[in-house]
Amino acid sequence: MKKILMFSLTVILLGSAAIFVWGFQPEIADVPAYTEVNIEGVKTQVFSKPQVELKGMEGVTSNGILSLYYDASDTGIAVRNDLTGTVWHSNPPGRTEDSGATDAMYSPLSLTYDNLSRQQARMTSFEDSVAHGQAEAEPIHGGLKVTYQFGEPVSHLDRLPQKISKERYEKIIQQAGDSFRRHLTYAYVIRDNPEVYERYDDALKGTVLRRTMEAFELAHYTEEDLARDHEEHQIALVADDSEKFKVSIEYVLDGADFLVRVPINEVEYSAATPIRHISVLEYFGAGGSKDQGYLFVPDGSGSLIHMNKEPSPFPYEQRIYGEDPAVYDQNQPSVTETVRLPVFGIQKNHKALLAIIEHGASVASVKAMTNGQLNAYNHVFAEFEVLAREMIRIEAGETSREIPTYQEHPTAADYVIRYVFLEDEAANYTGMALAYQEYLVERNMLIKREPEADLPFYLELIGAIPKRNHFLGIPYESMQALTTFEQAQSVIKQLQERSLDNIKVKYTGWFNGGVNHAVPAQVSPEKVLGGKRGLRELNDFSQKNGVVLYPHVSMTALYPHHSLTYTPTKAAVRHLNRNTAGLYPYDPATGDYDREDDPQYMLAPQLLPDMMNRLLQSYSPYELKGISLGGLGDKLYSNFRKGQFIDRTQTETIFAEQTSEIRNRLPEAELMVNGGNAYLFPYTRHIVQAPMSDSGFHITDESVPFYQIVLHGYVDYAGMPYNLAQEVDLREYVLQCLEYGSNVYFTWIYQKNSLVKDTSFNQLYSVHYKTWIEEAAAAYLEVNEVLRDVSGRRIVSHKILAHDVRRTEYDGGKVVMVNYNPYDVTIEGITIRARDYYVGGEGA
Q1: Distance CA 462, CA 751 (A)
Q2: Which helix (H) or strand (E) holds 189?
């Protein structure tokens, strides 16, 4: 919907105000620079040679818990758990017996790059480095570093002069000996100048080449001699390093964990053939055709891929924290669950490993393949994007072509993966989730909270939206109130009358232009909702009645026409093609973006600190006990604006730092976020729109609550608002809340649904509170009755007992078994009625 403004007194007044702010420019903050990752704990460990030998491998080092081994023939590594004897290999031990074996199975590293024809090509560390003798290993404290030179080695011909004086050539023959004379007469001939020998490349093959090289070596012919001959005969050589690369990888033992690091500042490539991606340990822990188990991928809430099943036509590949919206994508949009956690794992034969991407997660993708897709192995790994790319169309007359453009320099973060090894009862997806939870707790990235008497009931109230009206036939936009501050009090009272005592109200569209508000550099509550006085009265009412109010602020959204300071031209993120990166609403009816509507732009991350400071100054006086953030925990993006480029790793740092600033400046306020990317866990008390399923890809088999197991007892969460979810009935919603330890969440307006018809908010088609209040209260009370006593406890076990039958156990022994089937199920001696649940265990 293109906005048409009516020229009125209001516009004139706004224009006068614009004169005052026109000269103001938002402050651009410093971008977090590249910092080398240091593994501090390794310095305090004591290392020695491994006590146990592995066949075909050299023992590198041991810390008494793990031992590291190295195979010089293919640079593969192995890690042995010295307490259990379990060994994990980077290169599958049975690869030589696999008829479909590829070079990647012999390669701890591989890379993709764009060749001179701008086609994507791939190199592996075995075929393109080790096979040429171009890999070097060196010990480092606590481990090993291997450096690979990728690409064809320097040609033997390039080590011989193209031209050499007759005097110097005959001296080489004399020094080498008469036995080489016959071969040297084939290698060099006199052409135009009788005093100069010229190299005869057609003859320099096989024995002639070998004997010529030996002769020059015996004559002690050096690189300095070669340079002298080139200079003397005015031969300018252009080194062809276009398809030559250098990448290092480090392996370090850190207590019971295994760390792998690719230092990005040591990656070398030619600008003519830029590296696009680096894959790390593709086959580490891979399961063969006789192994039993599954691959874990962090798709949405979490998903399992069973080993050795019927091959899927497509592998699994998802970007951590979602795709980068600043990289223009010409493909049709796909609706998938976002990966919120930087982890993946393998479970096989009652052993398991969890991989945690410690650094570089925001430029990483998780990829997985099963037996039969490429070879006989089931494997999952991380691939890191070194350089983003876009195709730019160049038109000249009636012809056009596309050329690639790349980001200015590689990502500003090393790539670091921590592998955690699990055995026995911990060797499953629950054990992986609890291991990740422990990892976060140890680093103060998850903080234990005090449970409340009742579960939270999450309610989003929509305040105001822009709506097109007409005056004397001229269209204009005004604010339409859907839920005023006074009406919000009425809704809360009606919920409390139904025994809902722990209400968390996320209030959206309350200031600066409603739902699609201006950049929140200041707070001005909407007058149509009740203005400043109405907000203060709502806040006072909420605090007196035990309700926490979370006014929602979209921190990164930028809409046109709202500000002369934060305009898309000045403040929006740019694509690689330098155009502003506009996000159009997705239309599920057409499966495409609605380009007839106004786009949302994204605020350049460098401007966020200045904007946040101004927001908090304006927000603090209201003494609100909560704040809801949009954008920072949901979408992560780069900025390719010329002179202001930052990648996603740097944006992640800015988002985390600014969220921490909110906690520091508003210490009494609880923080609620949308989406819930892992980098905001340390600052977050509530997460809504958390993932509650996987994407349903063909390759995945089971959706599991991995995300919820990680968070339960530390952060309260809920999925999408029930009344905005598609194809889910309320009974199934309640059952999933019970299985996932989730809370109930609804989105409402006070006014009737008809007020959102024919607006840009048609998705709010069923939000009138009276339609839902009875069902919402009943659903909440049922979930609260079952889960309120375990809201502050960890989930310690989750199992898939049968088709659509799940079992969740909490710390203390309470068990909830859920049956989604339309028929009764008897399992473990317990009958669970159709579409119902059972509560038992020690803590019940």
Answers
A1: 10
A2: strand 188-190
